Amino acid sequence: MKRDRGRGPSPADDTASQEPAPGAVPAVDARLLVREEGVKGYVDEFRRKMRSGELGSLPVVLAVIIIWTVFGSLNSTFLSAQNLSDLSQQIVGTGMIAVGIVFVLLLGEIDLSVGSVSGLCAAIFAVLNVLNGMNEWLALLVAIAGGAAVGLIHGFFFAKVGVPAFVVTLAGNLAWNGLMLQVLGTSGTVNIPGESIVSKLYSTIYHSPAAAYVTAAVGVGLFLAASLLDAQRRRAARVPFRPVGEIVLRTVVIAALAFAAAYILNQYQGLPLALLIFLILLVLLDFVLRRTTYGRRIFAVGGNIEGARRAGISVAFVRMSVFSIAGTMAAIGGIFLAGQIQSASQTSGGGNLLMNVIAAAVIGGTSLFGGRGSVWSALLGALVIGSIQSGMNIMGVSNAVQFMITGSVLLAAVVVDSLSRRTQKAAGRA
Predict the structure, then answer these.
(1) What is the spatial distance between Cα 322 and Cα 315, in angstroms, rounded to a whole number?
(2) Which of 126, 202, 357, 393 could covalently link to 98 via disulfide, CB atoms 3.0 to 4.6 Å apart?
(3) How far apart, in Å, are the Cα atoms of 41 and each of 34, 35, 48, 56, 248?
(4) Over residues 302-306, mean pLDDT
């Protein structure tokens, strides 16, 4: 078509230029093709993800199955309702702290202070409530606020001053451990009464079978409602969405797992309050990460900090807030660990706690390189480490061997993460 030289292209010209050439195949979202092909499409998509290194939670799920199968075959006590119920309580403290580590790892950073911060906050509660008579709820809030403040200090030096997170938190690990010793004083140990709120948070168990089953039903119902709402929202936006059949299938799988867990818990004593609180926090924080603008900014900063900065994201705010979240979760985890042993002492937050929480986050599937992970990684990773420790204790294996095996599992998780990233880069997906 002939154009006048003095004018720009007309709307008709634009339309003509955008029309596909004869014989051209229009671009179609691959996710739509997968769902149109039914079962075959999903199988092909799964194979493609495996070949391109998108392993997701598959390695850690397989690890749990293998660990439970091995220990269950060696000693039937491991898979007993009592041991699994005890395990669900024992992983809560470590899992809570690991959730904070997940947030930091999503930025591609590390926090080496969470162990000492957890011990410090447990000591603050014990001294304020037990020795000084402060109201237990107020003392609990002060202790948690202390953890948040400590994390904010770390974030300030990292985000504003420019000190590497490794150095800031390593210094914090030493400093907060010293402050904990100062807070505890010459006695070194403060016993927490069994009727204290901290002890009850850990030890309370709802013996009624209805408690576990109702919790499972509510969880499944919320998952179904959220999935349907998300599909409706995506359909309205004309972007790929999960069909109802897929949502129903996923809900059935979740329901089977949830009610199986409820059944096992009811075979012993019932639903532990500590486990319930842990799951509620996981759901809330998962919503923050996956469904809010703030959560998307965390992934953006961890995936490409320069790109996030150019997109107008306040990188300093995200970094400071994430370290504050890590400090808060360290405080909550420390409170539960103190409730477990009913005391705060000079050894609180020490030993192999720091290594266990970092290992839990990484083994659960959170990448050390930032930008990829989930708060559910903390639950899965804590379950792996807790299962290894529980099984070895039943078998009478020494702590030295436990440390070596846990270290080997951590190394294997990092190797899988590294190989996965390399494979994704080769496939052009990273």
Answers:
(1) 11
(2) 357
(3) 4, 6, 10, 19, 18
(4) 88
Q: What is the per-residue pLDDT for 56?
A: 65
pTM, full prediction? 0.86
> Could you give the CA distance from residue 120 to residue 129 in angstroms, rounded to a whole number?
14
Distance separating alpha carbons of residues 212 and 272, to the nearest angstrom: 9
Taking the C-alpha atoms of residue 156 and residue 323, their distance in angstroms, rounded to an integer, is 9
- CB 150, CB 87: distance < 8 Å: no
Nearest to 362 by CA among 324, 328, 413: 413
Percent of the chain having pLDDT more than 70?
A: 85
Q: What is the DSSP-derived secondary structure letter of residue 292? A: S
- Torsional class of 396: left (φ above 0), alpha (ψ -120 to 50), beta (otherwise): left
Q: Which residue has the higher pLDDT, 95 or 17?
A: 95
Give residue 116's pLDDT band: very low, low, confident or very high (50, 70, 90): very high
- Distance of alpha carbon 245 from the chain centroid: 28
Residues ≥6 apart with Cβ < 8 Å to 210: none
For residues 394 and 70, the answer to whether their CB atoms sit within 8 Å is no
CA 136/CA 27 separation, integer angstroms: 62
Please give the residue that has the higher pLDDT: either 321 or 238: 321
Instruction: In whole angstroms, give the CA distance from residue 349 to residue 346.
Output: 8
- Of 91 and 187, the structure prediction assigns the larger pLDDT to 91
pLDDT digits (tens, 9 = 90+) for 36-74: 555 555 666 666 666 655 666 778 888 889 999 999 999
Structural contact between residues 353 and 118, judged by C-beta atoms closer than 8 angstroms? yes
One-letter amino acid of 91: I
Nearest to residue 84, comparing CAs of 281, 282, 266, 332? 266
Stretch 179-202: mean pLDDT? 91
**What's residue 262's pLDDT?**
96
Rounded Cα distance, 289 and 378, in Å = 14
Can you give the C-alpha Rg of the chain in angstroms? 25
Contact at 8 Å (CB) between 364 and 94?
no
d(CA 146, CA 150): 6
111 with 171: CB under 8 angstroms?
A: no
- Measure the CA–CA gap between 52 and 48, rounded to whole angstroms: 6
Determine the Cα–Cα distance for residues 343 and 97; give it in Å rounded to an integer: 18
CB 384 within 8 A of CB 363: yes
Question: Angle 136-156/165-184 helices, nearest 10 degrees?
Answer: 150
